[in-house]
Amino acid sequence: MHKTVICPGSFDPVTLGHIDIITRASRMFDEIIVGVFVNSEKHPTFTIEERVDFLKRTVGDIPNIKVIACDGLLAECARDLGATAVVRGLRAVSDFEYEFQMALTNRKLNPELDTVFLASDSSFTYLSSSIVKNVAHHGGDITNFVPACIHDEVFNRLKTKGNK
Ligand code: ADP
How many angstroms separate the alpha carbon of residue 132 from the centre of ligand 1? Predict the structure, then answer.
């Protein structure tokens, strides 16, 4: 059976931790939709177009991965896209409570939708988009945090704009 899954997130900006989870998923499932969510609760540093573009430049060449912008409820977007599972990364136990709550909420909203948790590579457990933003804001080295092809653009934007 052809299995389509969705990897949702803010990706503000995409990190090597995100890429680790997305590429792991691409080896497990037939089709991966990376859904970049608008997320009105957060105030993203990068626009939705920039976040989608960073991801396309990083994983766009992998044949079974598609990157799209999404707005609204994940459970509804997944249904519209024909995705039967959500893939989320777990870094530490601290991620678990929120992720478990979201997984059960999404299943309530869309009973056909399951959530699959993938453990991140141990070398990325500390990594988040906020860490990248904080380090770059202070001029620190983010070479080991973000994909090489977007490094300069991300670094220059964060350093000059001073966004957090
Ligand atoms: P959200 O705002 O929805 O939490 P994020 O962009 O922060 O979105 O994260 C998207 C997904 O990537 C989530 O499943 C998150 O747990 C996972 N993720 C983020 N950073 C890492 C990391 N360093 N290692 C593994 N998974 C990660």
Answer: 13
d(CA 66, CA 6): 10
Q: Could you report the per-residue pLDDT of 95-136, keeping only the tens digit for each?
A: 899 999 999 999 999 999 999 999 989 999 999 999 999 999
At 74, the amino acid letter reads L
Look-up of token digits 């920039």: 50
For 129, phi then psi, to 5°, come to -60, -35
**Residue to mutate, 5, 36, 86, 91, ligand 1, most ligand atoms under 8 Å from C-beta:** 91
Whole-structure pTM over 0.90, yes or no? yes
Instruction: Tokens for 11, please give them.
Output: 């990706």
Q: How many A from CA of 111 to the centre of ligand 1?
A: 23
CA distance 117 to 105: 15
